[in-house]
Amino acid sequence: MSKRALKTYLSKLPKKALEEQILELYEKFPAVKTYYDFAFNPKEDKLVQDAKAKISNEYFPLKRRRPKARRSVAQKFLKHFIKLGVDPHLIADVMCYNLEIAQTYSMEKNVPDSFYRSMLNSFNEVIQFTTVQGIFPEFRERILKIYTETQQQKWLFEEEFSKALDIID
Fold first, then answer.
1. What InterPro entries does UniProt report for this protein, alphabetically (predicted)?
2. Residue 86 belongs to what domain range?
């Protein structure tokens, strides 16, 4: 069904039937429930704090011995936040936090090459996201600090990290 056909269908429904359909969608589909829960009670700060705690737990676990250090955990949160329409400043904050916690982790642990490639992707994404959203100036100092730390730790792909920043200038 096209969007246009849906609009026509919905406009012909009586208000009571429309309400019943929305309630049915809310009960049947978790994504709809999540959307409405967020739309009517957006606790963005709580969502961000939960995300940061889980990202931190990936690198510095509280309950298990070995860290998993998966970038995918942060990516799932970021994708979910973008889908919900969370404030871009908060999304960029989580993106930067993910890189910062990964840098802290890499200081203490020997990490595989794939870790650096993954973090390069995250670095490119935070630059692209902040630029597209028009909030790069607010995150410039933090991003430059992340870049400087990659150079000091002698991360692999130093040149690619540098090229990511060249896009801005």
1. DUF6155 (IPR046153)
2. 43-167
